[in-house]
Amino acid sequence: MSDEGRRQKLGRGLSALLGDERSPFGRAMPSRTPNQVPVGNLRPNILQPRKRFDDTALKELADSIREKGILQPILVRPIADLAEHYEIIAGERRWRAAQMARLHDVPVLVKDISDTESLELALIENIQRSDLNAMDEARGYAKLIDDYDHSQEDVGRIVGKSRSHVANMLRLLALPETVQQMLEDGRLTAGHGRTLLTASDPEALAQQIVTGKLSVRDAEALAKGRKPQGTKKPPVQKDPDTLELEEQLSDRLGLKVTITSHSLEGGVISVSYTTLEQLENVYLRLSTPPEAGGGPWT
Q: 3: closest CA among 120, 109, 122, 89?
């Protein structure tokens, strides 16, 4: 198969490269019957882009495998210097879960493919399953470009993404290591990461996003030096003397009185009313001289 033909086949997804056929019911049918291989004869792929495996998700998969077995064979390639041993191309999660489920044998499909195709397939599987974190995805793209002479357009066709998506993910590699760690463990999303690229202090803003559980929109506002929408100042805790004075003034006027910005330099008194009659009554109380009515608060 020509290089262009291989790329087109990869671009159609994992099942296309596997050579799957369609059953009368529309389901993918492997082109070859899977072999049963001892789990100990499989090795992880050193080119695997995903470095983190969620323990909870693995346990859930192990429970499913224990009950129903492995429904989709693990894609492998032969290890040159080790007979009957194979390197995993796609399906490392299933292999790890099978070990947790204490399976002895697992179904595999053997493909004799190159390092480039192995990395491409591993990327495709993880991205199609939407469980690859942003940094592992970005590093996988970078490896295809740097080590295997792919362009951003090539990578986009291979994994079924746009060139701009690939370019945006690659930009995340410029973030500080501490921020990349937050993207790896899921504390930050790729959207947060792209926003942090424009921040004057990405690490400080990243910590603020995590602590405040800020949305991408709020993070964008902070990165541009604006106040996030919906951000409110924390309520000022009033001392007991101020609260007591508010209550006394409210009793005298018969309306709600609020004292704010109270300090040695002064403060603000607010009187709330709901009708024009209440406003007029406040005016009369404040404007009547003491000799005419006995003072404004009587």
A: 120
Taken in order of first residue, the domains within the chain and their CATH numbers are: 3-132 (3.90.1530.30), 175-223 (1.10.10.2830), 240-293 (no CATH)
Q: Which helix (H) or strand (E) holds 195?
A: helix 190-196
92 is catalytic: yes
For residues 48 and 139, the answer to whether their CB atoms sit within 8 Å is no
Q: Cβ contacts of residue 15 below 8 Å, gap of 6+?
A: 28
Class of residue 145 by CB neighbours under 10 A (exposed 0-12, middle 13-18, buried 19+): middle
Three-class SS state of 28: strand
- Nearest-10 Cα torsion for 58, 62, 64, 66: 180
Question: Which residues in the chain come in under a pLDDT of 70?
Answer: 1-33, 128-131, 229-237, 261-265, 288-298
CA-CA distance, 123 to 117, in Å (whole number)? Answer: 10
Q: Which residues contact 28 (CB under 8 A, 6 or more apart)?
A: 15, 20, 21, 22
Whole-structure pTM value: 0.58
**111-129: b (≥16 Cβ within 10 Å) or e:** bebeebbbbbbbbbbbbee
Q: Give me the pLDDT at residue 203, please.
A: 96
Taking only the tens place, the pLDDT of each residue in 47-94 is 777 777 778 888 999 999 999 999 889 999 999 888 889 999 888 889
Please tell me the distance from the alpha carbon of residue 19 to that of residue 75, in angstroms, as a whole number. 12
Contact at 8 Å (CB) between 268 and 279? no
Structure tokens that stand for 163 in this block? 């060139």
Long-range own/partner contacts, residues 249-258 (CB < 8 A, 24 or more apart): 252/297, 253/282, 253/285, 253/297, 254/278, 254/281, 255/282
Which of 92, 117, 125, 220 is the catalytic position?
Answer: 92
Q: Count of residues for the chain?
A: 298
